């Protein structure tokens, strides 16, 4: 990778993005959850948007300044990790006459995906609303969200639009990581991610990162210390809710399953979900 390369970590919300970032940070010696945003920030981070003058908060204005913000980020020295990473929930699509991202050949993409039947449950809890509302948001084409600032705007699209947008070929290498696989064999998949990025591999560091990122440990840390990336309110009261897969089998009705699979069934099949 070149000095101005970026490791992009995209996903639809609640698909394992934070877990992957925690693992990468722990592998590189960053154990403090509240330094995660500093180590591997999101493209919505206020620190990245400080140079942008005050503007009306809109998806159009956000897209107009994204190129400037990402170009400035490429010129920054990595803060805590030996590479420059960027989390995003933005769909890799054109909008308002501009692309969401401009990739270079030496960039890398680590695309996190998760069964949408489980995503809908996690999103409902995270946003403190019911499953019906979560299904509505996930299946709504062209969805945009914002939390009060220009940099916070995310053109996410629906679940299908978001995931499909990152499955198309790019000029840089991409690694598809299913959240379920990352949970089931964290050691194997962290090794693949480390090697994909091009970091020196160290077995002891890998095992330490896996141990430091166990879900029960993350839940305990959140309970005792809080977590700066957690919303003010969730249904369960936790950011790190369950850390399990397959809960949709008992939590969703047949009608809810049918609506989600009608929306994203083709993409689900491509990803290996039933």
Structure, described:
The mean pLDDT is 90. The chain has one domain: 3-Layer(aba) Sandwich (Rossmann fold), CATH 3.40.50. The chain has helices at residues 17-27, 36-39, 59-75, 116-126, 131-138, 159-167, 179-184, 186-197, 203-212, 215-225, 248-251, 254-271, and strands at residues 7-10, 85-88, 108-113, 144-145, 154-155, 174-178. 36% of the residues are buried. It is globular. It has twelve helices and six strands. It has a four-stranded parallel beta sheet with strand order 2-1-3-6, with helices on both faces. Strands 4-5 form a two-stranded antiparallel ribbon. A hairpin with an 8-residue loop joins strand 4 (144-145) and strand 5. With 274 residues, the chain is of the alpha/beta class. Helix 1 crosses helix 9 and helix 4 crosses helix 5 (131-138). The longest helix has 18 residues, at 254-271.
Question: How would you concisely characterize the structure shown here?
Answer:
The chain is of the alpha/beta class and 274 residues long. Helix content is 44%, strand content 8%. The strands form two sheets. Strands 2-1-3-6 form a four-stranded parallel beta sheet, sandwiched between helices.
Secondary-structure topology with pairs:
Elements: E1 7-10, H1 17-27, H2 36-39, H3 59-75, E2 85-88, E3 108-113, H4 116-126, H5 131-138, E4 144-145, E5 154-155, H6 159-167, E6 174-178, H7 179-184, H8 186-197, H9 203-212, H10 215-225, H11 248-251, H12 254-271
Parallel strand pairs: 1-2, 1-3, 3-6
Antiparallel strand pairs: 4-5
Helix pairs in contact: 1-9, 4-5
Oligomer: single chain
Helix content: 40-55%
Number of domain modules: 1
The CATH superfamily bears the name P-loop containing nucleotide triphosphate hydrolases
| Element-by-element helix/strand order | EHHHEEHHEEHEHHHHHH
Average pLDDT confidence is: 90
Task: Report the sheet-strand fraction.
Answer: 5-15%
The largest sheet, given as strand count, sense and whether it forms a barrel, is: 4 strands, parallel
Give the low-pLDDT segments.
none
Class from secondary-structure proportions: alpha/beta
* CATH fold name: Rossmann fold
Continuous helix count = 12
Strand order of the largest sheet: 2-1-3-6
Give the CATH level 1 class: Alpha Beta
> Care to count the β-strands?
6
Which geometry do the CA atoms define?
Answer: globular
Computed Rg = 18 Å
Second rung of CATH, namely the architecture: 3-Layer(aba) Sandwich
Distance between the termini: 36 Å
């Amino acid at each position: 990778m070149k000095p101005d390369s970026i490791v992009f970590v995209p996903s639809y919300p609640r698909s394992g993005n934070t877990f992957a970032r925690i693992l990468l940070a722990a592998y590189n010696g960053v154990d403090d959850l509240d330094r995660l945003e500093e180590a591997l920030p999101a493209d919505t981070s206020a620190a990245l948007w400080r140079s942008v003058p005050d503007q009306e908060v809109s998806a159009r204005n956000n897209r107009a300044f994204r190129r400037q913000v990402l170009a400035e980020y490429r010129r920054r020295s990595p803060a805590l990790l030996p590479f420059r990473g960027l989390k995003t929930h933005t769909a890799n699509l054109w909008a308002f006459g501009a692309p969401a991202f401009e990739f270079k050949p030496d960039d890398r993409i680590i695309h996190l995906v998760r069964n949408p039947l489980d995503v809908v449950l996690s999103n409902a809890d995270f946003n403190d609303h019911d499953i019906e509302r979560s299904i509505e948001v996930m299946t709504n084409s062209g969805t945009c969200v914002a939390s009060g600032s220009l940099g916070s705007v995310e053109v996410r699209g629906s679940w299908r639009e978001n995931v499909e947008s990152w499955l198309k070929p790019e000029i840089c290498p991409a690694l598809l990581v299913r959240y379920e696989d990352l949970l089931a064999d964290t050691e194997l998949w962290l090794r693949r991610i480390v090697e994909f990025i091009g970091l020196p591999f160290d077995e002891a560091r890998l095992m330490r990162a896996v141990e430091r990122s166990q879900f029960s440990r993350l839940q305990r840390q959140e309970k005792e210390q809080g977590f700066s990336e957690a919303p003010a309110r969730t249904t369960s009261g936790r950011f790190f809710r369950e850390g399990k897969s397959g809960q949709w089998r008992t939590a969703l009705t047949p009608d809810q399953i049918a609506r989600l699979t009608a929306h994203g069934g083709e993409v689900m099949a491509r990803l290996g979900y039933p």
